[in-house]
Protein 1
Amino acid sequence: MKSLWNESEAAQYPGELGQRVYTSRLLGRDASLVLHGGGNTSVKLREKNIFGEDEDILYVKGSGWDLETIEAAGFSPCRLNHLLKLAKLGELTDLQMANELKGCLTNSAAPMPSVEAILHAILPGKFVDHTHADALISITNTATGLSRVQEVFGDRVVVIPYVMPGFKLARLCAELFPKNAGPRTVGLVLMNHGLFTFGDSAKVAYELMIELVTLAESYLAKHKAWELPSPAMVPAPRAARTEIAALRKDISAAMGVPAILAVQGSATGHAFARRSDVGVISQQGPATPDHVIRTKRIPMLGRDVAAFRAAYEAYFAACAAKAGRKLTMLDPAPRVLLDPELGLCTIGRTAKEAAISADIYHHTIDIITRATALGGWRALPAEDIFDVEYWDLEQAKLSASGKPPVFAGEIALVTGAASGIGKACVESLLKRGAAVVGLDVNPAITKLHCRPDFHGIVCDLTQEAGVTAAIEEAVRKFGGLDMLVLNAGIFPPGASIADMKAELWHKVMTINLDANFLLLRECHALLKLAPNGGRVVVIGSKNVPAPGPGAAAYSASKAAVNQLVRVAALEWGKDRIRLNSLHPNMVFDTALWTPEILASRAKHYGLTVEEYKTNNVLKTAVSSRDVAELAAEMCGPLFAKTTASQVPVDGGNDRVI
Ligand code: ZN
């Protein structure tokens, strides 16, 4: 492992807090050191308080911040003396500790300090760095981990046996560290958890971390447990998309809410899921306490959700009885799944959660593989995992997290999503918490949003093979389909029937009608498996109730789709799928309407552009966003009892009224 310290980069971070920010980010850049909010850092500074007195302040990473992107505001200023006094208390519950941590801040607007704040306070050195380095965990999580750690680091670290993070751990370190530290001590190893280093400058503490982790890596290499096998290419999952969607439905039922199921398709995940010993090495527990919540106790092997659920319920009952506390069981749904065909899959309430679990589990695979090569992987005992899972602080966090967005855990597919109404629909659905797959023939679709809950696929809707491949990809990405927004369509240049070429007629029908038939047919089985029932919204047109001369092909295609959807509503009601149409008119903020076209059309009617835009009963302009918001609402609870409706969104049209 190389130090990333760079003098000119470091110079851009002035002051000691600035240096603290800089090396925290260096740690955060390496996913084998810290992942997704894991790890924490601190600096002890002397400051004048409001009375003009000198006071020692511990700036420690606040919760909700990631080391990779942390800023000065992400460090919570705690009164150091207060923390040192807390460390001397014989007893303190974790909820009391959380209260004290919040109470000793000098800035009431600062984030909640890390639960490891007291540990940072008692360690010597102005700068303290803490990681959950993969290489260290690969060594500690073995049968002879303790003696191996002593062999690797000698008297350079103090080793603390595993205790759950929180007050008890801080208390134990406060007791053992001064007793066992010597003149060569530069760090602290927490068994099955991580590593601390400290120093008088940010650079020293950081480079000691790199040095100690490198020692761990070299030890693994010496024991032929460092190089990971390079797995073979992943074969495409053989499971049909409906099998994946059915699995997601079962998992959602166990979770009690719709869930995202992401088939990772990684070679590493696949190879691990197919190991002959996967039933042993994957079923012992997570690598570190901070992985417990994200990956759950153990991954689910195969696809039998009922069996996993029963095993979890039995585990909870046994542990809860032993703990002698009254506890409410968390949902018995897995967060990680290993299947010989599907490989590694991760589950989350949102696409982001599933992505985080995937990152963590990929590291877990590396750790388990190395520990196994070193002589046998050993996770935390089940009771310790249970303690973390049912930790007061985690429970408090869960009950504090607000109401989830209306479409959390649900998946929407939008056609023609790169621009105009389709693009606006993507935004309205994302805003409501859905994971969205956007299809468009325009390659810009792949870059429309860079976030874990959006996936853009380039797709020509007139090519059947391309459409089915895109649906397949959407299901592997998020696990199924709950909402379908049929938006893609073309509006050809005006042509009277007498002059219209058959070619134009067919082109319009192919895109506006045939493609929608194909999408409906191919998505039906998936929508039927939607945990909360499937929903389809069709972006129709004012031309359905009020066609215009010169637009025969367009009007006929839209009217045909309208009729198709009415039949689908009759056929699919028994499958809990509802379909509704909206009929927009004169939506001018789309690629179709350039300022030139707008000006010429306005002129044609003897109106100003503004008059033309608001030429409706309500004298109001209709935007893509107006249409998209209605489309999203049609998928929501407001329209739960409505199917086959047709709602105009046109400012009121006297020909329709
Ligand atoms: Zn930690």
Note: The chain has 24 helices and 18 strands.
Protein 2
Amino acid sequence: MSDPVALEALLTEDRRFAPPEGFASRAFVADPAIYDEAEDFEEFWARWAEKLHWFRRWDRVLEWTPPYAKWFVGGRLNVCYNCVDRHLDGPGKDRTALIWEGETGERRELTYRDLGAEAGRFANVLKDLGVRKGDRVAIYMPMIPETVYAMLACARIGAVHSVVFGGFSPDSLADRINDARAEVLITADGGYRRGRVVPLKRNADEAVQRCPSIRHVVVVARGGLDLHRDFTMVQGRDHWYHELASRVSDRCPPEEMDAEDLLYILYTSGTTGKPKGVVHTTGGYLTQVHATTRTVFDLRDDDVYWCTADVGWVTGHSYIVYGPLSAGATVVIYEGAPDWPDKGRFWKICEDLGVTIFYTAPTAIRAFMQWGDRWPGAYDLGRLRLLGTVGEPINPEAWMWYHRVIGGARCPIVDTWWQTETGAIMITPLPGVTHTRPGSACRAFPGIQAALLSEAGDPVDAGYLAITRPWPSMLRTIYGDDERYRETYWSKWDGVYFPGDGAKRDDDGYLWILGRVDDVLNVAGHRIGTMEVESALVEHSAVAEAAVVGKAHPVKGQAIAAFVTLMQGMDGSDALADELRAHVARAIGPIARPEDILFTADLPKTRSGKIMRRLLGDIAAGRALGDTTTLADPAVVQELKEGYEAREE
Ligand code: WTA
């Protein structure tokens, strides 16, 4: 959870921002009565579901046998049909669906009609490879339009996709492929990031060696500049996408899916070393991403919408692909880094493409702030009309900077709280209704019921965040592990969802999310389990034991601090620390690289042998030490603290 100083800052934050005059009068939702109307939440969600195209209407809105929910029972629909075909009847067919910009500057624009053809073609390629309804397809791609075609293609034929972030290591990819027993892997020769080529196919080859379930690897040629094709195409297994695509039609009938059929699996970090395969289904998921995209982003036909997330995370799934496309939006996709070739890149894109809605993460906002006002100042951001943030708590200074410098003090900011597991936005302002407060995600979305509870389940003003009734886009289980699903999310209180965050409520009844209360870190908006990093560290031959905690970081929100004990005879040198950092980056991905590594002879443990992470957190944060009376050997902590402080000087 956030440290006490940050909490104090939140408590004294009393600025309020009304929806701007011109905005509210035209907003999609301008009447706060929506909250009361949504009290009959089944009715509310059914009205949203009606805005989608169904092959067969549902018989029942909700079947709730805690902790298992079925939404729109008996209904049949296709997500790709709803994201593409549905827009082709009217004027929407010639509307721009995607505007893609590569890091190297090239641009591609597709109308909804083009997108339909590309998704249809990709779907036929998958079908020719024998992919059938229910089969799992792994997608390990850069941010290029083909990634979106691939996701839509899976949805079209009823295959279940599992997108793995392109920054993950071969080992992380292999673990995810194996857990889902994916049969096909879609990847690319490479992608660009900060001027360098990310060797996706080479990583994929390394991963697939460990993946007996993979029958085919489809390789998209990223194109453009000369990518180093330092890999071989394995005969019979590997196929260039453009070769397969040239042999198939671009028309593919959509599969009629049950509302509860799987749409995708997305792996996320939890409190054990093994990532969880979060399962999302079809009807409820699409209903809630659609409803929230329309209302929270106030999306209109003439908007140019840009969410800067990577499609490998849930934000990309819900708010680059399924939400905006189901709403017929014009979606910007950018391949690369915000500071390439210089720190004005994002603002240049906003100006060039006339972006009107911009959704990013607090860690990015803090980086922009640090880079200075002159970068955004050099571009015309006058078309922006709404700003959003997601992924971690936003500190009020960063909110104010975003409001003033990027939003020109005229754009409402929606601070949206949600998770991989919730599938869609859960706590958020509505931009035409809510008086926002910098740093607060404000209140539960209409139809959603959030509470703050104590460990015992009593209502409190500061405590655990809880979701007290089911919602359409909720995860249905953890893939192949119902027990872990029940245990992780539903065992704290009866029939109530436990997201793993702490929060407080202010005088206005607004919610302020304070951060994770479990062993999950949030580094630059990315969820990383401390156990995953610990397992990676102890795999190294020099390491005997490791404990990982988060420490506050001005830009990333949190950074990783690792306390490591070494095997007998090993020396804790700077060179070894660097080697361990590189080892973790190789094992998980660069996002998990520890910032601080402290070698120590002992770790603080309770008498029963449990590592006291809380104390390590205090040390990493430079805080006074908490209660040490339960320690087996209190001297260990004092030594550690002195050691840690000495290395920072
Ligand atoms: C955190 C990302 C504060 C939270 C969509 C949550 C936030 C975790 C916010 C989920 C926000 C997300 N304010 N904290 N607006 N949004 N979080 O699964 O700790 O990658 O549990 O989903 O991010 O991260 P995930």
Note: Residues 1-5 have pLDDT under 50 and may be disordered.
Protein 3
Amino acid sequence: MSGNTSQLQVGDKTVDMAIKQGSVGPAVIDIGKLYAQTGMFTYDPGFTSTASCESQITYIDGDAGVLLYRGYPIEQLAEHGDFLETCYLLLYGELPTAAQKADFDYRITRHTMVHEQMARFFQGFRRDAHPMAVMVGSIGAMSAFYHDSTDISDPQQRMIASMRMIAKVPTLAAMAYKYTVGQPFVYPLNSLDYTSNFLRMCFAVPAEEYKVNPVLSRALDRIFILHADHEQNASTSTVRLAGSSGANPFACIAAGTACLWGPAHGGANEAALKMLEEIGSVDNIPKYIAKAKDKNDPFRLMGFGHRVYKNYDPRAKIMQKTTHEVLNELGIKDDPLLDVAIELERIALHDEYFIEKKLYPNIDFYSGITLKAMGFPTSMFTVLFAVARTVGWIAQWKEMIEDPSQKIGRPRQLYTGSPQRDYTPIGRR
Ligand code: SDX
């Protein structure tokens, strides 16, 4: 590499490729002309060394354990701001003034109700459906109810669709929970802040007054901030790819929700809690550490490891602190799952295998303990992740749509199947 170009020798050809440097972080080699000049593709399953786009939203330094939303460290946003302030920041690129924040809160609050007919849409699901299945279906169904904000070429419609999703996904999430527990849906209350409103829609019942616990509401609001965006992760890349075809925003967010559900991604918080319950006690930890290290055993420590973080996930540290805050507020003195989690982390962080592979707790390791203590069933954990990540998906989708160089995403492949051959009639096979 020299200056701002790199050269690739392919046979007797030398291909010059531009090097682009961002504001911070790794530079990129622009390989856009490689196929035209060499007839070859690059090959990078899982995209471990591939930048799919240029973005100004979120920056992660995996080695240093740094996470910035529009340049602001996650620790400062979680400490000083609220989730809707983070939503404004991710969408517009700057922290809001007091007037802008008040206007944004007002607009979001007044979009929290869903079309009344969506309540009947839920009746089509079995009561024992996984809430994530309900979320994928109902978010996708929003394009059948709000088709007056699906024209992606209209900036006004793009913004209305964005507001509607940030505002209505928590309502749909609470409805998904109520539906599975057989309780009546609870309408949003405009006098409550975003997260208190969500808690009330989940846990209020018509039979009595529901009083929001401000400590729990603040804790969940902070958890939403931690989960809001995370660069080009699998579900965000899904949203971008779906959006690149011109699909409507509701369909794109539904696609991202489906991808998030996987246990290697957003489903890890549910899987991590089930793993802690399976381990059951501190005495069983060595057996599970051995399983995690055994190449022939598919078992992995859920909530551990990360494609980008090769240091402690900064969100996990804040998550751990929030766990203690919530357990203290609820008077839960000794949670056996927390004891297992803390001892598992201690052992793993001193184990050669985890040190050599740079496996640290990620955001999903502690979140399940906190959410369970708050009263959410395990099946709702990934739904809560989706509630928070909706703004990140939308901000990334909006950035892609507004990028003048945007085109449909269409990767190629290394073909190792059969070369061309002729059809054999069935009688001669
Ligand atoms: C999220 O991308 C994001 O930003 C995601 C996310 C976001 O905010 O959007 O941060 C949210 O998805 C967090 C990650 C949640 N997933 C889990 O906790 C599931 C458990 N973790 C692993 O499945 C894994 O660590 C991944 C999927 C998270 C990352 O996998 P990679 O980057 O593809 O790494 P890898 O599978 O190639 O693992 C490298 C090595 C392997 O060993 P070798 O083949 O090199 O010998 O580390 C081992 C793996 O076997 N390894 C683990 C492990 N994670 C990786 N071994 C035991 N337990 C684990 N958890």
Note: The chain has a mean pLDDT of 95.
Protein 4
Amino acid sequence: MTILIKNGLVVSATGQAHHDVLVDGERIVAVLAPGSELALSAERGAERVIDASDKLVVPGGVDVHTHMELPIDDTLSASDTFETGTTAAAWGGTTTIIDFANHHVGIGVRESLDASFAAAEGECAIDYSFHQVLGGVDDAALKEMDVLVDEGITSFKLFMAYPGRLYTDDGQILRAMQTAANNGAMIMMHAENGIAIDLLAEQAIARGETDPINHGYVRRPELEAEATYRSVQLATVAEAPLYIVHLSSSHALEVVANARNAGKNVFAETCPQYLYLSLEEHLGQPGLAGAGYVCSTPLRSREHGHQADLWQGLRTNDLSVVATDHCPFCRNGQKDLGLDDFRAIPNGIGGVEHRMDLIYQGVVTGELTLSRWVELCSTTPARMFGLYGRKGVIEPGADADIVIYDPAATTTISVDTHHMNLDYSAFEGMTIDGKVDTVMSRGTVIVADDRFQGAKGHGIYYKRGLSQYLT
Ligand code: URP
Ligand code: ZN
Ligand code: ZN
């Protein structure tokens, strides 16, 4: 089908201009000056014309950090399936996710990847790919890294936290980084000193400090900064690039900024929860309410100004990407497992549906330009993880993943209206200036007129190239 999107303000990472966008089948085939002979002829030939007057036309969002169906153990997994989570993502203007293949101690890397492929196959409403977790690095895992890069899995997440299941020690990290330096992969780091955190957590419980807020107290920002610094130094030694995931503290941000100022290939993402929510107001709520805000890295103190520093980092490009770390657990039957001991609360917040809206508020408040919004939510994520060209941009040849965004409409976030499989909203009651109006995924309109018009199975798996941020 040919579709012409006309009269919209097309926003890219480098600028904005009124253009008509012509889609043929799954791809964008032309970006045309409105009123031009070519645009008029495209309109005459189009099977469908969408009028985007007074609206923004932006590349579909690319969320490079999600955890659909993340298994915590044999009985507990994140509450969104690939179907529900990608459908919710579509509602929010995200048209591609990169999820994680969940390797951990005791299983093989390939086994974990096969399980992720099986879970996602035929289920996704939008396109998807996987990063590979390495929960422990041995000779077999290192060999597998090379094979996976050739197969289009070009990024690997390591954990300096969670001793026993996912943790890798410094020697393991260095070996993985050396391998990445050779094969061109990107190492993604969960940078928290898990050994120190577990000790502080044990001491807190022994003192009877069991409430959710203690999760935030023991996961101190210094321990995020220490691990961030250590991983930067290890990456320097290995001459490997490094991408810090879910950065939440001013302390870690300073480490990343210093590394970048020193010319290192170090990048970081943050997530909407760290920009909007805080340790005191949210994690500090008693019982189940606070448990809903347990995630790692944790929400940080507003008193100490972490949130403002992160917004600044987004402006200055010390933070390159906004992802969600979407990892939803319901209050009932999941978050409530840790009401007597914060260590047993499953870690994670759901937000895949709200990233584009929440970061658009940075445009509304003047923190970000329109182009920076697109760059943070779509273009840089695509470039960082080897999807650019097909994703993250509106130009001929790219996939027709397009969001028409209405800056004059408003959205109120609520559990009553969201589409995630989650019995609460971390952003309950927030009013957003702006609204996703229409979402197209590979040339198919999947959200319009306040209706989901897509289908599970529409989304296809993407092999990825190497990051464009490698030198
Ligand atoms: O709390 C979080 N972030 N849960 C998801 C797993 C991870 O570490 O990203
Ligand atoms: Zn993590
Ligand atoms: Zn995560």
Note: The chain has 15 helices and 17 strands.
